[in-house]
Amino acid sequence: MSVGVAIEKLNGRLVPVLEPVGRPVAEIVAAVHEHTIDQGLAVLAIEGLDRESLEPLLVYCAELKCEVDDATCPGCKRRTEVDGIGSFDVLARRHREIVIGDGAVRIEGPGEAVGTAASLEALVRDWAGESYWFWARRVIRKLRHGIRRAHIKGSAFSGGEAPAVLLMEPQLAENIGMVARAMANTGLDELRLIAPRDGWPNEKARIAASGANYVVDDGVAHGTLAEAIGDLNWVAATTARQRDLRKPVLTPEQVVNEMRARAAAGQRCGILFGRERNGLETDEVAVCDAVVMIPVNARFASLNLAQAVLLIGYEWMRQHERASLGRVTTYETPMATGLNVGASRPATKDELLGLYEHLEHELERLGFFKPPEKRQTMVRNIRSMLARMEATEQEVRTLRGVVAALAQGKGRARKTP
User: Fold this and answer.
1) Measured between alpha carbons, how far is 73 from 41 in angstroms, rounded to an integer?
2) Cα four-point dihedral sign 405, 410, 415, 417
3) Predicted confidence (pLDDT) per residue in 110-137, tens digit
4) SS3 407
5) Nearest to 28, CA basis, from 2, 9, 55
6) What is the pTM of this model?
7) What H or E segment, with its residue span, contains residue 220?
8) Average predicted confidence (pLDDT) for the chain
9) Angle (nearest 5°) at CA 23 between 22 and 24
10) CB of 187 within 8 A of CB of 157?
11) In this model, does residue 153 exceed pLDDT 50?
12) Could you count the other beta carbons within 10 Å of the beta carbon of residue 122?
């Protein structure tokens, strides 16, 4: 059975649907976005819908071809915009009633529509609709090019020696995803979540991870702090607030040194990060072995989760034998500090002396060295200036070409002897 996009009228609105099953395009996009592509197709279980037939549907959504068809999907942000609902207040005025949860809470308005929402929080978060076309673009990239770094597993870099990153009651899935990205940047692979507010697993975290999906996919949620740290030998708590506790206070560099020494002795370590809103409670810090305090502006000491994790991770990576300056790919070799000469090489002294003599000869010919008794001093200054360049052999050739062009001219401008 072949499938394709058609326009049908559902509940009085034109909607792009998948023929012949009549399911809105947004529903198909959401399924393959929230899961992997193959898992989403399995969940949908639509005869004839496979990777090949999925792509035209995704392109339809990604390129907003529904605008030409004057059609919108239920729950799509485009429908909200077409209906002129630019704020939550306008939404409430369009409804006679919005029933929240089990009906104990209701929002009443002067309009005619009747709506439902799982919770007030969900209503406030999702009232504007989802950007399904943006989701479709992401899925197209995965479909055509695969998930970035999907082959990397959770322990691929650190081999189990890296500390676990523990997030205490994280509120936003997007923040978890950004933490995962910071972890992947710095070779930290093990993510543990304590009572995440929005549940786990969460597709929004995978989106925010921007390719660090393996950290998110291997992340584990725990109900309590005690459960999360149960198998660890040593845990440090991050905080910007001073605590009246008799514990070692360490900088990021010091805590990394401590964890490396303990890891070498076979111990498992972890770093505990607090809630976005108010950090860690003192009782939570009390069960840890040390306190980590990051040097910051004392008048503005608050860091977001990803920043804090990145700073600790940077210290961890800085001391790692496999640390790399930037990325390394099939076409990009590892970088080192110092002058990057690329495919060239530093010029030899013979090449530099040739440049000096060439330049000095042309300057002499054009009468630059005046008065004559200053010539030696001027030559020394010119050579010192050029030596500071640390020129490559290619740059020396280029400079000699410049000198020749200025002295003799090129083409019609060439001077006759």
Assistant:
1) 19
2) positive
3) 998 888 888 888 888 788 888 898 889 8
4) helix
5) 55
6) 0.53
7) strand 220-222
8) 88
9) 115
10) yes
11) no
12) 12
DSSP three-state, residue 415? coil
Name which of 280, 278, 317, 281 is nearest 187 in CA terms: 317
Residue type, 134: F
Distance of CA 283 to the CA centre of its chain: 33
Interatomic CA distance for residues 392 and 346, integer angstroms: 4
Contacts of 378 (CB under 8 A, 6+ apart): 368, 369
Rounded to 5 degrees, φ, ψ at 82 are -60, -35
Q: Mutual orientation of helices 252-264 and 305-318 as an angle, nearest 10°?
A: 60
Residues 6 or more apart whose CB falls under 8 angstroms from that of 27 comprise: 73
Other CB atoms within a 10 A radius of the CB of residue 252 amount to 22
Contacts of 197 (CB under 8 A, 6+ apart): 169, 170, 171, 172
Give the residues across from 272 on adjacent strands.
166, 237
**Percent of the chain with pLDDT strictly greater than 90:** 58
pLDDT digits (tens, 9 = 90+) for 289-300: 999 999 999 889
Q: Say which residues have a Cβ less than 8 Å from residue 136's Cβ, sequence separation at least 6.
A: 29, 33, 58, 59, 61, 62
Buried b (16+ CB within 10 A) or exposed e, 64-77: eebeeeebbbeebb
Written as six digits, the tokens of 385 are 């200036």
Which tokens sit at 219? 């992340």
Q: Are 248 and 239 in contact (CB under 8 A)?
A: no
